[in-house]
Design goal:
Bifunc_inhib/LTP/seed_store; Hydrophobic Seed Protein; globular; about 120 residues; transport; 6 helices
Length: about 120
């Protein structure tokens, strides 16, 4: 089973990729991204219940990441945070499906291999 840090990473990667932004000019800090997505950790890490708070966080980050630099920054934050943890394909799959389960449509794939620089 993945550690809590690994789950945070996977959740962050998925959400960051979903709401990517460039760290150089992004209005959303990485700390804000990580903090906002905390309600999603149990779902991604241990296939827990998908909560209203998690979906609200996903919708809020998606709305806040209005510019390309914001979206790229969120993506980069999630990828960097995720790289610090061990995760498995199940965690990645849960994270990848998170936005869709919350009714948020993203124009790119949520995956650790996503190139954040290509996120528009």
């Amino acid at each position: 089973m993945a550690s809590p840090r690994a789950l945070k990473f996977v959740c962050l990667v998925v959400c960051a990729m979903a709401m990517a932004a460039s760290t150089a000019k992004a209005a959303i800090s990485c700390n804000q991204v990580v903090s906002a997505l905390t309600p999603c950790i149990s779902y991604v890490v241990s296939n827990g219940a998908l909560t209203q708070q998690c979906c609200q966080a996903i919708r809020g980050l998606n709305s806040a990441a209005r510019t390309t630099p914001d979206r790229q920054g969120v993506c980069t934050c999630l990828k960097n945070t995720a790289s610090q943890f061990a995760y498995n394909s199940r965690n990645v799959a849960l994270a990848a499906g998170l936005a869709g389960k919350c009714g948020v449509k993203l124009p790119y794939k949520i995956d650790p291999s996503t190139d954040c620089k290509s996120v528009k």
